[in-house]
Design brief:
Elements lengths: L1 H20 L8 E2 L4 E2 L8 H4 L1 H15 L3 H10 L10 E4 L2 E5 L5 E3 L5 H7 L6 H19 L5 E5 L3 H4 L16 H13 L2 E4 L1 H7 L18 H18 L11 E5 L5 E5 L5 E3 L19 E5 L6 E6 L5 E3 L2 E3 L3 H7 L2 E6 L6 H8 L3 E6 L5 H6 L17
Helix pairs in contact: 6-8
């Protein structure tokens, strides 16, 4: 009996000690079982300046980091006690998804940073946002002096349009959401024609399926979602080029696949052709996303030229998958429509000098990366102002 008691005590002590020995010290972790970001280790500076906050944050970190936590949660979930959670997390290759209500999937982003964005957490400090606005203002001044309008367009994530299907275990940020906050900040501090497409998509969400339900395309809108994004963009382009007539719903064909995903095409034959990739051979252009670098030439070469810095929300071709998104519409309105991936925006001055555009558009879904991109722009050589601003 004495030996049996010693064994029980040993097992009990091991159960207490092993989780402490195997505490997870890594940062930016996502809980597979709970669909949420786990707490990071608190700032040591708080020990001196805010002792109460340090204790609170340390307690949250310790509870989230104790060894074998995920394994114990799996056992807990198997028991059915935790079945009220709306979804679980899974990985498909390097992409992390969340399973929400009614089978809807949501992209979580690397290290779950899009979960943080959904929760309304501050993803970069004020000084970084201020630096981004200052750099953008420099870009605007440079383009103003050449008489070239500059437009910034931010796209929206699926959870910003369909939050009702997002996993209920993850609490949504209050209004205004980060997308709207950053859009307003650039409008106010950089004085640039800046907008996002959230409101126009919210107005149409009950009429059309604007985002994919549960494919690897979860973080992109559908072709009809892209059409409404294009329509919103054209309101801003028309300020400078009122002679361009945007397409209406009656100008497009909407077809659906067997899963109800809408495809969109123009009823009229396109009046443009896609140029060969060699179009970019005489400029320095990074090609990590070469399928998103594209140039189109209209049959009417007297139309204005647009230089478009964009990500995959403007359209892409990857393997045998093509998403036209807004490229097909923009290419129909301009003599040349040049699309270059936003990671190359640091060399925008080179492209402006080379292609002599009549308007420049910057489109991005991931505003989180925007400060990094803008802050890499080198010192600009500002040209003398033109005699008049012809497009006003």
């Amino acid at each position: 009996m004495r030996f049996f008691n010693i064994v029980i005590i040993f097992i009990f002590m091991a159960m207490l000690m092993l989780p402490l020995i195997f505490v997870d010290l890594s940062q930016d972790r996502v809980s597979v079982q709970e669909n949420r970001m786990l707490a990071n280790f608190p700032k040591l500076a708080d020990l001196k300046h805010n002792y109460g906050k340090f204790i609170h944050d340390f307690d949250a970190w310790f509870k989230d980091s104790i060894g074998f936590r995920e394994q114990l949660l799996k056992l807990y979930n198997i028991s059915g006690i935790n079945s009220w959670y709306s979804g679980v997390q899974y990985k498909e290759g390097k992409y992390v998804y969340l399973v929400g209500e009614n089978g809807h999937h949501y992209y979580a982003g690397e290290n779950g940073y899009l979960i943080q964005r959904y929760q309304g957490e501050k993803l970069f400090p004020d000084e970084q946002l201020s630096s981004m606005a200052n750099k953008l203002e420099e870009v605007k001044v440079y383009l103003d002096n050449k008489g070239i309008p500059f437009i910034i367009m931010f796209c929206a994530l699926k959870e910003e349009i369909y939050p009702e299907f997002y996993p209920k275990a993850i609490k949504r940020s209050p209004e205004p959401i980060p997308l709207d906050v950053i859009t307003a900040y650039i409008q106010e501090h950089a004085g640039i024609d800046t907008f996002n497409i959230r409101q126009v998509l919210l107005a149409e969400k009950n009429n059309y399926l604007l985002y994919y339900k549960n494919s690897f395309e979860d973080f992109h809108y559908t072709e009809i979602g892209a059409f409404f994004a294009y329509r919103e963009l054209m309101k801003h382009i028309n300020v400078y080029f009122p002679e361009i007539t945007p397409y209406e719903l009656e100008d497009i064909e909407i077809s659906y696949d067997n899963e109800g995903i809408p495809d969109v095409s123009l009823k009229t034959k396109p009046a443009y052709k896609k140029l060969d990739a060699s179009f970019f051979d005489d400029v320095e252009v990074g090609r990590p996303f070469s399928w998103e670098n594209a140039a189109y030439e209209n049959t009417n070469t007297n139309l204005p030229v647009i230089l478009f810095f964009s990500d995959s929300f403007s359209g892409f071709i990857y393997s045998d998958l093509e998403k036209k998104y807004i490229k097909q519409f923009i290419a129909s309105h301009f003599g040349k429509a040049i699309f270059i991936h936003i990671t190359n925006f640091i060399r925008f001055q080179e492209y402006v000098e080379k292609y002599n555009p009549d308007i420049v558009v910057f489109e991005a879904m991931d505003i989180i990366n925007a400060p990094h991109i803008f802050n890499l722009i080198p010192e600009l050589t500002v040209p003398p102002p033109p005699p008049h601003y012809a497009r006003c």
